Amino acid sequence: MHAQLLTGSKAFCSCSTEFGREPNNNVCPVCLGMPGVLPVLNKKLVEFVVLMGLATNCTIAPHSVLARKNYFYPDLPKGYQISQYEEPICRDGFVEIEQPDGLRRKIGITRIHMEEDAGKSIHDRDMETLIDINRCGVPLMEIVSEPDIRSAREAYLYLAKIKQIVTYLRICDGNMEEGSLRCDANVSVRLKGTKELGTKTEVKNMNSLRYLEKALSYEIERQIDVLGSGERVMQETLLWDEKKGIVQPMRSKEEAHDYRYFPDPDLVPVDVDEAWIQKIRGLLPELPIEKHDRFIAEYGLPEYDAGVLTASRDLADYYEAALQSLQNKNQKSMKNVSNWVMGDVLRVARDQAVGIDAFPVPPSHIGELVNLIDNGIISGKIAKDVFECMIDEQKKPEEIVREKGLKQVTDTAEIGRIVKEVIDTHPSQVADYKAGKTKMIGFFVGQVMQRTKGKANPKIVNELIEKLLDGE
Ligand code: ZN
Ligand code: MN
Description:
- The structure is a single chain.
- Helix content is about 40%, strand content about 15%.
- The protein is of the alpha+beta class and about 475 residues long.
- Helix 2 (about 150-170) packs antiparallel against helix 3 and helix 7 crosses helix 9.
């Protein structure tokens, strides 16, 4: 996997990494590959990659080397990419993926190294190809996993986990459509029970989690068919064609790589001492799995809720901020806050296509809304209406309840008067009830609620109806 890092400036020069600028604007002699220029390593790039290494249980190399990976490509003006080869900065780590049955499985990380991105060739413009160098030199982190992934589903979960970790660390925006996070997958099949891995193919161009799972499912089936018909799998590079739903071979000429790696003589080796590692370790936030487990232990949430709420760091922060304004910090109320966040908040965020960080309702208002329900000021049903107003008006829930007169009626005398009125005006329904149709209670409750616009305390309504009907 390749992840573009949010360093602000490029890996070896001070050009901006901003996405979407006019072509060939974020450039300078260094990233244009002019002769005689000298690259200077971006310190933040080192820190971000070490942070990722620590988050994925890697060993951090005290000494690592930047290397030239030589190949010719129009959007690579230097004729080589600065990368790492024999001595990467992170190695031998792992992440844990959660399988649908709740079991966790470790996927080994072989290495994580730093490198730079290439530019972009823009094809199909009046039969011409144009070059945009803006992306040249944008810092990348390459993550290579061990062959531990056993299915297309696991590949999906692994990619999702890496995406979750880099966004928790705030070192990459995780946007696969814009290419901030990209992956190539090596696929091979073997008979159940055999040890030897089969001949592998490499599948490229999967720019979403869903495409990855589809492409790999397709490729696994294709290889099984090839072997099943007595033929052999060719080692080749394949492109996923989303429109056709198939993989297609890339031109084989581009597979014959001989990169002739060697240490870049323009760059000194990277030495990361223990003190620096400790300093970076101090920047590690609580990681997704830790947060997930703490949400269960500390708030008594079900596994499912913890999974949804900790899917992103912003959503987890939103939930915890909502708890801050909760008066009764018992399990039931904390679960209620979770229901609001997982249900209504996420629904509206999706409908309005806004991130949770820009959600119109501040989290404290969600906590206050649950307080109103807990304290019997409003019913759960009325709360739904209040929530809709909170989105439109950005007012505190108490204010909305006061302004719109939505406070629950708990005055027994007043409710009693309405109940009597309903019973008096529906003699035939009363007769049905007395003839044994106890279900009629629901009808009377509905009538009372209609007359009070849903504001009557349902418990009191039920009690009074039963009392009056049975007393007559
Ligand atoms: Zn530059
Ligand atoms: Mn690479």
